[in-house]
Amino acid sequence: MTLNTFILIFLIIPLISSSSSMNRVKSLKLELTNETDSLQWELDLAEMAGYALEANALIKFEVNTTEPITFSLNKCMDMILTKDRPFQTVTLFFGVPWLQYFVKDSTEKCLHGYSELTLEMHFGSKNTSGFVEFSEVVFAPSHLKELQPSIVPIGGHGQVVQTFSMGTLIKNAMFQRNTTTLVAIYNYTDVDPILVGFGKCGVQPSTFDFVGGRPFLIRGELLDHLYRLSTLYCHQDPYEYTLEVSISAPTAPLDGAIAFELLAYQTPNEVWGYIKALITILAIIVAVALIKIAVSMKNEPLEDKKSGEDNNLMAREPETEMVEFHRIEE
Questions:
Q1: Structural Rg of the chain based on CA atoms
Q2: CB under 8 Å to 51, separation ≥6 — which residues?
Q3: Is 169 within 8 Å of 144 (Cβ atoms)?
Q4: Alpha helices (H) in the chain, listed in sequence order
Q5: pLDDT (tens digit, 9 = 90+) per residue, 247-257?
Q6: Would you say 132 and 29 are in contact if contact means Cβ atoms under 8 Å apart?
Q7: For residue 178, which of 220, 216, 217 has the smallest C-alpha distance?
Q8: Which long-range contacts (CB under 8 A, 24 or more apart) does 319-327 make?
Q9: Half-sphere exposure of 22 (CA within 13 A, CB side)
Q10: Which band of pLDDT confidence, cut at 50, 70 and 90, is reported for residue 311?
C-alpha cells in the first residue's frame, strides 16, 4: 500500500462517518389533512432512539390539531400508552427507559397484532388537520423530594389524586428485580376495594382494585410499565421518577394510606409466605376483635330475668347450633 493510498483511505473514512451522521433521522412527522374517523401510523423509532441515547437526548412527541382527537400507542395488540380524553395539543417527552424500549421493540415479533409500533389516532366527525411529530431533543428532567417512608396518605370523598416521587424505590425494584418485589399495601380495613390508578401527564392511568390489608405485588410487565411511566415528562410534570396516583372508592369515604415497600426474597414461595403471614395476622386481629365483642355482650346485665327453664333452654341452643355448624363443615 502506497503512502498516497493510505492518505486517501484516512480522508474517506471520516467523510463516510460524517455523511452517515448528517443523514440520520432526527424527526418523523405526519401531516394531517381533513382527517375523519381513525388513522394508524406504523412507527420505527429504533434508529432515532439509538442516536438519542448516544447523544444524551430524549424523544419529544408533539400533537397539534384543529379538532379534538384521542390516540393510543400500541404493540402486539397491547396499549402501551393512551390518551382517551379528547385534546388538540399535547407535548410529551420520552425518557431513557422509553428509548431503550423503542430500540428493543424493533427486534421483537408479535404472535398477534402488528409487530411494528403503531400510533392509532381517532378523530371526530369534523375534518381534522394538523401534525403529529416525534423528534430528538435535549430535555433535562427535574426532581421531587422522595417520600420517606414511601407512604401516600389518602382521605376525603370521591377521587383523590396525589403526585409523589418513587425515586430510589422504583429504581431498586427494577435493578434488583430477581431478588426483590415491590409491594403496595392499603392499610384501611374496609371490605370494599378502592380503585387505584397510576398515570402521568394526562395519559390514561392503569387502574387496579386494592383491598384493605391485602398486598398488591408490582413486578414483571407492570413494574416495567410503571418504571417507563415515571420517566414520561411534560411541561406540567417535568419530574423524574414521579407517578400520579388517583384513588377512588365507589361506596365509602376514603381513609388511611397506601404504603410502598421493597421486599427481598429468593424465590416466589418466600413472597407467598410473607403474604400468608400477613393474612394470618389480619385474621388474628379480626378474631381478637370478635372475642372482645362477644365478651362485652356476655357481661352486659340482662334487662328481664327469665325462669330457670328458659335459661336452660337458652344455654342449650348454642350447643345445637355448634353441632349443626360442624356437620356442614364435614
A1: 29
A2: 24, 25, 26, 57, 136
A3: no
A4: 3-23, 46-54, 96-105, 167-175, 220-229, 268-299, 308-329
A5: 887 766 777 78
A6: yes
A7: 220
A8: none
A9: 6
A10: very low
Contacts of 197 (CB under 8 A, 6+ apart): 205, 206, 207, 208, 245, 246, 247
Q: Are 75 and 13 a contacting pair, CB within 8 Å?
A: no
CA 310 to chain CA centroid, Å, is: 61
Domain range annotation of the chain: 24-137, 151-264, 270-295
Is it true that domain 24-137 has CATH number 2.170.120?
no
Instruction: Give the tens place of pLDDT for each residue, 73-106.
Output: 998 878 899 999 999 999 999 999 999 999 987 6
Q: How far is the C-alpha of 140 from the C-alpha of 17, rounded, in Å?
A: 28
Integer Cα distance of 226 and 182 in angstroms:
11
User: Which residue type sits at 177?
Assistant: R
For the chain, how many helices (H) and strands (E)? 7, 15
C-alpha cell recorded at residue 193? 376495594
pTM above 0.85, yes or no: no
Contact 29, 82 (CB under 8 A): no
Question: 6, exposed or middle or buried, with CB in 10 Å at 0-12, 13-18, 19+?
Answer: exposed
Instruction: Identify the DSSP state of 254.
Output: B
Q: How far is CA 37 from CA 118, 120, 171, 177, in A?
A: 16, 11, 41, 42
| Other CB atoms within 10 Å distance of the CB of residue 129 | 13
* Per-residue pLDDT at 116: 80
Phi (first) and psi of residue 167, to 5 degrees? 40, -115
CA dihedral for 37, 42, 47, 52, sign (positive or negative): positive
Is it true that 24-137 and 151-264 share their CATH fold? yes
Nearest by Cα to 146 from 275, 262, 274: 262
Contact 136, 51 (CB under 8 A): yes
Which position has the grid cell 377521587? Answer: 159
**Topology classification of domain 151-264:** Jelly Rolls (2.60.120)
